[in-house]
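User: Structure please.
Assistant: Input sequence and predicted structure:
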Amino acid sequence: MAQAIKTKKIMILDDNANVLKILKRILEKKGYKIVTFERPSHALKYALEEPLDLIITDLKMPEMDGLEFLVQMKTNFPQLEIIMMTAYATVDSAVSATKWGAFNYLKKPFEVQKLYETIAQALH
């Protein structure tokens, strides 16, 4: 009897609704279950109540920046992989993100294939 493949649940956090819509559509086509949030406070609340396999978060957000979100998530879920993305990539921000436990760091705009590869690596 074949065993069912577990659908991986990915949270995407970005204050830009268009980015969320595009990433959700792209990743759902690959079979992932996607939940999206524009506000880090809502994302944190959800993550404390629902299991996740991966988080993809923007770095620059008005309510709380992605590094602060990363630190809070890693404090509560040290094994959960988190991919950072930003249009404002600097060496310092990349170093900070990896220092605090980010799995990887994607500079917007990024190729869809690069996103797929990064997600596959993070989930294995």
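The two ends are 24 Å apart (CA to CA).
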